[in-house]
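Our preliminary data section would be incomplete without showing what the modeling component actually yields. Below, a chain of 159 amino acids is followed by its predicted structure, encoded as tokens that our downstream tools consume directly.
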Amino acid sequence: MAENELVLTREGMEQLKLELDDLKNVKRKELAARLKLALSYGDLKENSEYHSAKNDQSFLETRIMTVQRMINNARVADFDSLDTSIVHVGSVVILNDVEFAEQIQYRIVGAAEADVIDNKISYESPLGKALMGKAVGDIISVDAPVGIIQYELLEIKTI
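Predicted structure:
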């Protein structure tokens, strides 16, 4: 993998493209209207509306550049030819917590898509790294703040 390469699912790439479109075509226009209104208040030295809008404009343009760079450097994982005998980016894994005998399902995604609430973990996270290349039946040990957590890999599938 190249140093600047970002691995994404198709869904993740589409989300980035939608975000970029919204930033460029909606947020920029809203911000331009705010700036125009703030300029109408006069005296830019003490115009907090203007300074706030300029600050927001800086953040917006930075985010646009960041998202554009992410899209340009992204590689979309090919799930159609994904080998389900081992864990890859895009795999859905079902794990059994060895200590508590609880099952949990995670989808392995790129860092830009990670969302623990939605059970999407990055392949760069400690658990993601430990899972990459593993097969059903393997025991995965992850060093966590509470100590070593062990999981048994029960199933690998794709969506």
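The longest helix spans residues 10-39. Strands lie at 6-8, 74-76, 92-97, 102-109, 120-122, 139-144, 147-157. Preliminary results of this kind motivate Aim 1 of the renewal.
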